[in-house]
Design brief:
Blueprint: H1 16-25, E1 30-33, H2 40-50, E2 55-59, H3 66-70, E3 71-76, E4 79-84, H4 86-93, E5 96-100, H5 107-117, E6 122-125, E7 130-133, E8 139-144, H6 157-160, E9 164-167, H7 173-184, H8 188-204, H9 215-226, H10 231-243, H11 247-261
Parallel strand pairs: 1-8, 1-9, 2-5, 5-8
Antiparallel strand pairs: 3-4, 6-7
Helix pairs in contact: 7-8, 7-9, 8-9, 8-11, 9-10, 10-11
This protein binds adenosine-5'-triphosphate (ATP) and magnesium ion.
């Protein structure tokens, strides 16, 4: 829930805040699974702020190496100097490190994560020979979107089974109305049909759409409407175009819009 207005706004939808706190208290890493734009990043920002810890976010991709996370020697003014990567910095500071789309990371990254995510809680820095024991306040959070997964890109059981895990999904309609209204400034009465449209579009996902419309896109549409844009124009550029390039699917989406907005 939105307890403290100075924290990044996050509307909880289940036990995720309690789970995060329990994970942190017990030194356990946490894996968030869920579709794009459903609040995973916002949740981590909120919880890190709530714990009063800095947050280091790393977007993983298939070129990301262990050195990108841990650090490397750099040449500075003729001298080589060790520079910590974001993971090392987070461990040293007892911060929260958030690895977004962790399935994209290269194999050598998972090798680094294993001793850090089991009871050793140790970051091995091969290059310097350092072994950092993570302080109590350090927490590793990772996320991925199971919807994008292919057989080649799956977390190994030995990695998965080092994390507590929780599935995120789009919030229930009441919650989503509150979130979209708060984020966009559009009043709840005008957000309600938008959220209803979102529900109808999500029912299509898997058939014609790879993934349903995100809360993020509903916020975009509501933001355009709050700024005075015509509803049909806002929906075109914030919902229909971002969702698909397929002309037939776009027509189906416009039909859905027409049934809701008349
Ligand atoms: N429960 C929530 N509380 C507050 N805002 C939310 C919530 N869920 C979604 N949002 C809104 O949706 C937007 C997108 O959420 P966020 O960036 O956290 O998604 P994500 O799950 O990290 O997506 P991706 O997997 O694409 O990174 C946020 O900027 C925020 O406006
Ligand atoms: Mg995110």
């Amino acid at each position: 829930m939105d307890r403290d207005p100075s924290l990044p706004y996050y509307h909880s939808t289940g036990i995720e805040c309690d789970l995060f706190e329990a994970a942190q208290k017990n030194g356990l890493p946490l894996l968030l699974k869920g579709p794009t734009g459903c609040g995973k990043t916002r949740f981590v920002e909120h919880m890190a702020a709530r714990m009063g810890r800095p947050l280091y976010t790393v977007a993983c991709h298939d070129d990301l190496s262990a050195a990108d996370l841990i650090g490397r020697y750099l040449l500075r003014g003729g001298e080589t100097e060790w520079v910590d990567g974001p993971l090392t910095r987070a461990v040293r500071e007892g911060a929260v490190c958030y690895l977004d789309e962790v399935v994209e990371a290269r194999k050598d990254v998972t090798v680094v994560l294993h001793p850090l995510t089991d009871n050793r809680r140790t970051l091995m820095i091969d290059r310097t020979g350092e072994e950092l024991l993570a302080p109590k306040s350090f927490m590793l959070v990772a996320s991925y979107n199971p919807g994008y997964q292919n057989v080649l890109k799956q977390l190994k059981p030995s990695t998965r089974q080092r994390f507590l895990s929780i599935t995120f999904d789009f919030p229930d309609p009441q919650t989503e109305i509150a979130v979209v209204s708060r984020e966009s400034g559009l009043d709840a009465e005008r957000v309600a049909p938008l959220v209803r449209l979102g529900g109808h579009i999500r029912a299509l996902s898997g058939m014609d759409l790879e993934e349903g419309v995100s809360t993020r896109l509903l916020v975009y549409a509501a933001t355009l409407m709050a700024g005075g844009m015509r509803v049909t124009d806002a929906l075109e550029s914030a919902i229909i175009e971002p969702l698909t390039d397929d002309a037939d699917v776009q027509i189906a989406l416009r039909d859905l819009v027409a049934t809701i907005y008349g």
